[in-house]
Amino acid sequence: MTIHKHAFTFYLIGTIIFLIFVSGIWTSLNAQYFEMSSPKFRLWADTIHIDRQMIKADGDVLILQEGQSIYANHIIIDQNRKEIEAYDSVLAHFKDTFFSGDHLWFDLEKSTGEIHQGTLYYAPGPLYIKGNRIEKKGPDTYHIDDVQVTGCDICDPDWMISGKDVHVTIDGYATLWHGLMTFKHIPIFYTPFFLFPVKQHRQTGLLFPFVEQSSRKGWVYQQPLYWVINKNSDATFYTSFMEKRGLMNGIEFRYNIGPQSRGTLMMDHLTDRQSETQEKKGEWGYTHDDYLRQNSDRYWFRMKLDQSLFNTIKAELDIDRVSDQDYLKTFNTGYTGYEKSRQLLSQRHSRGIEDPDETVRKNRAHVHRLFEHSRIYGECRWYDDIYHRNFDTQASSAQNLPVIRFSKNPTPLLNLPILMDVDALYAYEYHENFSNRHQLFMGSGFSLPLYIIPQLYIEPSFQWKGGYSKDNTQSKTIHQKRFETHLTSELYKIYSFGSKHASTKSIKAYKHTIRLRGGYTYIPDDRDENDEFQWTVFDEKSNNINWLISNTWVEKSVDKTIAGNNQPIYKQRILFELSGEYNILEDREKDTSTNDEPHKKEPFSPITVDCVWNADYFQLDTDGQWSIYDNQWLNYHIAFDVNDQKDQSFKLDYQYTENQNESLNTTIAARLNEQFIILAAYEHDLKNDQRIQHNLGFYYQGPCWRLDGMFYDNADTNDQGFSVMMHLDGITTVKKQGADFLAF
Question: Which one-letter DSSP state was computed for residue 540?
Fold first, then answer.
């Protein structure tokens, strides 16, 4: 960006002149040179006149002293007092700060001084502070009278904060009294005290506030306070005033003590003003169930921890507890809303959280260790059923306390061409209202991969599974055998483009592969569909033939314009795949048709179609199932994405399932100019002809500020509203977790 181009160039004149001096060019211009040993500094000027202890220098005068520099047209140096006075176009540089002004006084030994009618420029900000008098009180501290503070070009700033008195500590904070903020020369905000950071790194302070107007919450003002605890941890405190709901307080704590050891804890609490009644059920609650949310003590606690222990042992902890069934639907926006929480936890821990309308929330403690060819883990899973907890309904899930599993990848058996794998599991299921149960599962398999010819590959396999289950009343065993054979044939050809000798020097190459795969699976033993344990770890009785035809194009490219870049990049450009199966069991079934319920045997499964096209600026991803008996699509999905390098995109997502749903979801980002981007999203239920939600927002990047806005109308949450957030350059510092930090 060029928003500070002219001002920044102006303040760097002193540095440019310094480069001229050290390069020796100044000697060719007949400049004079003087050096003093105590305190050590060097002086260049057109003319230098020494009269006893006074040194007068005129014409492009530059003084350098241990990383500090002063430039002016006229400079007087008192060698006894070790003081400097500079006049006419004064420029000075101290660490990351640059100064300009009319008159400078400076103490060489104490590194203190003052500059009149000056401007301080802090480069990492960027931040400009202009005042009648800038006093340098120490190596990193300054005091400024009658100030103007901005992150814009100081000559014509879009926004500015003026005040009477400022104290600045470099790589610390600046305090300002009686601050008045103006935007486009219009006063918009007054504060008796203002605190803002002057740092390159993260710092304690207030985040930019989030402002929202919602039909369910009224006016919302959310003010976060960011706290740097130490180099490995930080926290954010949230206070949200909601006109119709009350005051919500929250905290977000984060730590990071290694590449695989980090944690995130988030908690929000609200004493809700609105209670739900049968008459106002749809006004403050929702009508998706018959239960009234009567509690006013509402909260959401979520936490994820990753911890690296020893000997490749790693631990994970996930906790998700919400007060009621409506909380996540009602409070889904802002810094602590569901969507922001989901994004943060997914980015930091690569694990998401349950959907907002899920009333059974999974909590778990997990420990695992990886070996070269095997893995073992132990896990306790606790399912928090909101309805069971609040309304004393029957618990919907069993608690697994614990689950222990060991699995071994297929590896050669005794140096033979036979591959063997092992899988074992123990689980203890706890039921609040039923008998508790011990469950044990063991399985092992053997496979023999063979290449008949280079283009033909066959792999027969056998697998055995056994299970034991015991509760307070009975015990039972089950076993299952699985026979399977896969036959694969693959043909490919490589096409190279980009040079005369394409086979050896091409920039891009494409590999076209046609893969044919056939398989046979036979499982003679059935499972009990009413037994959750059997349904989870055992397969259905099966006797079928499956097939797959795959056609792919993979691009290999090397950017030879980058020196030393010999690593190829592989991208799958095109995939077209057809698959299906033939069910021998269903074909052999006897006709069980009746007059009331006719039975139609359909041994051939629907044909599954999968098509992907990845280009540089658009992606097409489609899949679906075609019934050969009904001669129609049973379901299909189309996702289309067009984008460019200017933050513009168009995304379309269409889903259809026969007799169930049909929906359309589109999002658009259009750049009107270099500063203004419009965002729009629309989702519609085509089957019921109902709008699900639509959003309309914008993103405006000013010369030294940014404004984000969003209007939303969500039929699922029955809520409409809009939100805005403003960012000011110079007041913000480094970004962490997607948030800009502000202190005042």
Answer: P
Q: Are 404 and 366 in contact (CB under 8 A)?
A: no
Per-residue tokens: 316: 């994970």
> Is 403 in contact with 424 (CB distance < 8 Å)?
no
Q: Which amino acid is residue 322, in one-letter code?
A: V
SS3 of 17, please? helix
CA 338 vs CA 52, 211, 328, 568, 717: distances in Å: 75, 17, 6, 40, 13
pLDDT tens sequence across 104-133: 998 888 888 889 888 888 877 778 888 888
What pTM was estimated for this model as a whole?
Answer: 0.75
* Cβ 635 vs Cβ 657: under 8 Å: yes
Residue 81 burial (10 A CB sphere; 0-12, 13-18, 19+): exposed
Q: Which amino acid is at 514?
A: I
pLDDT of residue 504: 46
Instruction: Tell whether the torsion through CA atoms of 683, 689, 691 and 692 is positive or negative.
Output: negative
Q: What is the pLDDT of residue 740?
A: 38
* Cβ atoms 174, 198 nearer than 8 A: yes
Give the count of beta carbons closer than 10 Å to the beta carbon of residue 247. 12
Measured in residues, the chain has a length of: 744
User: Phi/psi class of residue 446: alpha, beta or left (left: φ > 0; alpha: ψ in -120 to 50)?
Assistant: beta
Torsion of CA 610, 611, 616, 617, to 10 degrees: -100
